[in-house]
Amino acid sequence: MSSTASGKSGTWRNWAGNVTARPVREVAPASVGELSAAVRKAAEDGLRVKAVGSGHSFTAVASTDGVLVRPHLLTGIRGIDRAAGTVTVEAGTPLKRLNVALAREGLSLTNMGDIMEQTVSGATSTGTHGTGRDSASIAAQIKALELVLADGSVLTCSEKENPEVFAAARIGIGALGIVTAITFAVEPVFLLTAREEPMSFDRVTSDFDALVAENEHFEFYWFPHTGNCNTKRNNRSAGPERPLGRVGGWIEDEFLSNGVFQTANLLGRAVPATIPAIAKVSSRALSARTYTDIPYKVFTSPRRVRFMEMEYAVPREALVETLRELKSMVDRSPLRVSFPVEVRTAPADDITLSTASGRESAYIAVHMFKGTPYQAYFTAAERIFTAHDGRPHWGKVHTRDAGYFAGVYPRFGEFTALRDRLDPERRFGNDYLRRVLGP
Predict the structure, then answer these.
(1) DSSP letter assigned to residue 305
(2) Residue 408 DSSP symbol
(3) H-assigned helices in 335-423
(4) Residue 145 backbone dihedrals phi, psi, to 5 degrees
């Protein structure tokens, strides 16, 4: 077997390094026909099949002991329909390439997450989202999907064609088939003005409903061991473009996300007692700033510091109480947390296993620097999140199983019944899916 980009020969690793897999073989199909043939061949050999993207999930959702499908040859835009306002893109296309290509065509997605390293199919299949009052996850912007099923056949679905598959497969966690192409709704490129400013924890939580109502995209970071937050509001703008200056952008992005932040985390990992002091400095180092640019340059930023992450969606009305419980837990505990906690929102959507399915949601993401023990913090946080009927992100650390999901997803049985019909032999199964969907 040829050596892979993400490890020694035959070993696949995810981005965070906490999941490894040793497949029997790897394939890199250059067409949907080649992928269909690979799925049929796996069935003949009695092997399971999983497609991997960029490995940005912290769970073993894409791990396999059978045939590993790498999608890097299934990339690029198949077609743009300006009248319908859609773009059809091959499943292995990285979001970054899609965003740049769309901008060149004068187009943009309506909303996106805060990084763009993932493939379009990996990001949508796990429910990747940004923050939005009216606009939802990347998967909620899907208008049609093409899938290779367990028997090697190709199925297309949309609201009109195979609508029951469409309802589930937009966030299919790899359980229903291998996505080969996605049709997204797009719109003419627009400008966003970002306004970032420090704010106290008490003020953000007391004004949370107003801040969400008044802004198209509101999010904030709370720095544990402090009462300090950094807020970000993104709203559409008539312009003119005022991108971040190179120096200002460097200070912010390097401080919060990359070089300086990495150094601070290395110190915190070596000497945990220094973390509260570092947090106070970090949380005060960021000054208010405003800039205007095209969407992907405002929504996304580079993240080079590696970490572990857990994220839960709670009903939006439960957000403030949940976050206050998290803060008092950290304050009372001996935990030392060097990463900020990220809070975002989403409107309700109609996707069967979306974390925002049928309910307006708020997201709380907790992180720990790679190499620091994260279990105690995540376990305590998860206890708080699940007490509020939280739904974990499908690609981030959690300990929930099918019994729990049946209780927090009203349409859970609809998804598992569809899986029984489309993949009765569990050709696309693995240990993670067995745990979260049942045997």
Answers:
(1) S
(2) H
(3) 375-387, 402-408, 412-422
(4) -135, 150
- Report, as ranges of residue numbers, the positions in the chain whose pLDDT lies below 50: 1-9
Interatomic CA distance for residues 110 and 343, integer angstroms:
20
What would the 3-class secondary structure string for 177-234 be?
CEEEEEEEECEECCEEEEEEEEEEHHHHHHCHHHHHHHCCEEEEEECCCCCEEEEEEE
For residue 159, count CB atoms less than 10 angstroms from its CB and return exposed for 0-12, middle for 13-18, buried for 19 or more: exposed
Alpha helices, H only, 216-287: 246-256, 259-270, 275-285
Tokens of 170: 């937009």
**Residue 353 to residue 408: CA distance in whole angstroms:** 10
Half-sphere exposure of 277 (CA within 13 A, CB side): 6
349: β partners: 357
pTM: 0.94
Rounded Cα–Cα distance for residues 381 and 327 (Å): 10
State pLDDT tens for residues 81-96: 999 999 999 999 999 9
Give the bridge partners for 49, in sequence order: 67
